[in-house]
């Protein structure tokens, strides 16, 4: 019998992760803390964890702020 990998093999089902992020935010966790937790629990790279948090509905109202911060930081690095 062959073994196939399913999403249930993951530490947390990513479909349910949106609820986790909403709960973390409601409990006062910051975006950075949410990224750290996402990375640890889902066992993903830092970049992937950032993307998951950035695209989440839990943090959607802050997305423009995240984008602006990223642009300012990238510009500062480019100018130096």
**Shape descriptor:** globular
β-strand number: 0
Report, as a whole number of angstroms, the end-to-end distance: 59 Å
Unreliable residue stretches:
1-9
- How many domain modules? 1
Task: Summarize the structure in words.
The protein is mostly helical and 80 residues long. The protein has one domain. It has four helices and no strands. It has helices spanning 14-26, 31-42, 46-54, 63-79. Helix 1 packs antiparallel against helix 2. The longest helix has 17 residues, at 63-79. It is globular, with a radius of gyration of 15 Å. The model is unreliable at 1-9 (pLDDT under 50).
Strand and helix layout:
Elements lengths: L13 H13 L4 H12 L3 H9 L8 H17 L1
Q: Main attributes?
A:
globular; 80 residues; mainly alpha; disordered N terminus
Summarize the entry for a quick read.
It is built from four helices and no strands.
């Amino acid at each position: 019998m062959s073994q196939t990998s399913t999403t249930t093999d993951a530490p947390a089902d990513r479909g349910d992760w949106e609820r986790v992020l909403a709960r973390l935010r409601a409990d006062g966790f910051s975006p950075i803390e949410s990224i750290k937790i996402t990375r640890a629990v889902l066992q993903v790279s830092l970049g992937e964890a950032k993307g998951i948090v950035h695209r989440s509905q839990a943090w959607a109202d802050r997305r423009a702020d995240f984008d602006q911060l990223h642009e300012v930081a990238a510009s500062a690095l480019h100018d130096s």
